[in-house]
Amino acid sequence: MPTLNEKAASLGASRSAIRELFEYGKSRSLEAGGDKICDFSLGNPSAPPPAELRAAYFEALSSLAPKDLHGYTSAAGDFETRKAIADAITTEESFEVLPENMFLTTGAAAALCAVFFALTSSPGDEFAGFSPFFPEYRVFAGVAGGVFVAVSADTKNFQINFEALESAINEKTRAVVINSPNNPSGAVYTKETIKTLAGILKKKSALFGHTIYIVTDEPYRELVYGGVTPPFVPKYYDDTIICYSYSKRFSIPGERLGYALVNSRASDCRRVYNAIAGGARVLGHVCAPSLVQKVIARSARLKPDMTVYAKNREILYENLTKMGYTCAKPDGAFYLFVKSPFGSGAAFSAKAKEKDILVVDGATFGCPEFVRIAYCVDTSVCERSLPAFEELIKGGRGK
Amino acid sequence: MPTLNEKAASLGASRSAIRELFEYGKSRSLEAGGDKICDFSLGNPSAPPPAELRAAYFEALSSLAPKDLHGYTSAAGDFETRKAIADAITTEESFEVLPENMFLTTGAAAALCAVFFALTSSPGDEFAGFSPFFPEYRVFAGVAGGVFVAVSADTKNFQINFEALESAINEKTRAVVINSPNNPSGAVYTKETIKTLAGILKKKSALFGHTIYIVTDEPYRELVYGGVTPPFVPKYYDDTIICYSYSKRFSIPGERLGYALVNSRASDCRRVYNAIAGGARVLGHVCAPSLVQKVIARSARLKPDMTVYAKNREILYENLTKMGYTCAKPDGAFYLFVKSPFGSGAAFSAKAKEKDILVVDGATFGCPEFVRIAYCVDTSVCERSLPAFEELIKGGRGK
Known about the structure:
The structure is a homodimer. With about 400 residues, chain A is of the alpha/beta class.
């Protein structure tokens, strides 16, 4: 008789709701033909990677020795790569970022796991984050016995509900997790939001006698519209740890490259960094994939091409709001978070699925009245989906 | 004041002893010149990847659409890749292996972590393994609160010390971890060893009323000499889980591709598989790196080129034994595990370091009287090291 970790067995059997829909979409596409399905389920970027990135793959493969290309790197990643990234951020943000405080990981997910592990000093330690939130936070926070605590949303403009935050923080709180530009709302936190958050955390850290970190999960940092600039959090709060990924910026989510970066101004920065390195080690991290490290060393200053996303955003936002749907216009990322005309996101998602439109129930993100539309797809998919969205809301209104 | 996970902080600060020596070697090379140092510290393969593998990189990058190359794959990995691997094993071993029981991971380390997580049903659950063993087993077994239990070595021929095993297994034992071809001894378990092990585990599983798994960690499966063939463990024991990596076979340790494979004959195979998938999810696994998945789909039947390792093995084994060193001739992998002429491996490693020869103290692997020489280096390094080894043993004898 097998005796297994029941939690693991059920997590493995269930998958995330998003992945579940994605897998359904893949098999439904094979069955009905890909052009029948409008799959808005997954944040799998549709914009091609920048041409220079593609060229960097060929250049690295042609010019480097196999051992340099494919050999182990240091656990923290090639210093050259970390320096290229740190220098690019330092220039971009006019704020010094040091390569020795950067630990390359296999994507932001692994960075978050390592950071949650590092910051959990006792079982039951809490990580507070705001609805709507990335559902895997719950899973990742549990890795060392921590707990993710969802703070109610500000569903009007998706900034922070500070009143709810103040009452959520207690002596067990280790960090507040933020995600701006936000998945799934597309909101970008303003400078005022970050400043107010920093003020509250300074006060609470003093009150409870230990540091409360900001863990800022920002794979969408460069994916913004209309000249919006996300504030660089380390400028406003010393005890900040950034979790980053190149998945969305360069449309390479399969390549699994990201990092955890400790603000040089953080108290006891070296020990925090070591705890993250130790967290990564416990989770089976040996080094981040090597070839893509070389590629990023050559591409650290490249920007994403936002043309397709900007176009898709306009098409969907303009048309859906005209049809009567309610949603905030996203300032970043590539998601629309739309209020369900059927009361619940689950009902909307189910009815849409019947019309071969795949959208994710907002309950997944802690906001059960919404659905998420990931518009990182071909523009033709957005255009093709409009009649179905129109029929859906007519049906919803008629009810 | 930061409140951190002290275990993580100390693991991150300490690094593994092997990695520590590797980092020392890198900085010492810069200081003294690379041709002064004989760095036998790390299992970073020196043989170039097969030419066909290199060609597969260019072919995949040139022929596939960016989204297929670099997009998310299923969490378990591309089905096409898993099928190519499973088919190759099925042919090679004349034993059916199914792609749906294979979960691609970021290297064998991540596979081991996910498996240990999956099999730990209560804190303190035990994983037994034989000295000499890969030291990170201790760290990885701890991920879900499990404990690695070292079983005394058979230091004569590095098969299994069955008497010690019988007394190490108890009601808390979840699995026995084996590693053949072995790092660091180079031993390959015989068919008789596997059969005897299987017999004991069947008996103990019945006795304790729960399955005791074999977790077989075999990144060196194809790296064998003189026609030796490692027995395929699933043939001899149903409840077997293979943890594999392409790091050593194709000299691509930086690329982080491996898998966990549940034997189709395992009891409740699907639930075991789901628990491993859940374990991976908790540890921040999203998917294995995508480009290398495409490359392996095209290269699953390629064999490693053993020419350099075979040559290095001869040079070191013949010369060192002639000088008076004691070691078993390795049948696989690319390590010599040499008895220290100075009583302890620590003393040998320290004295060798003074002569710019980097070898790892066997205490790291649970055998404190030995050192490990990783001969996956250029042949010139082996040749260059001989005078220093000669001086060392003369000094040792003279003591």
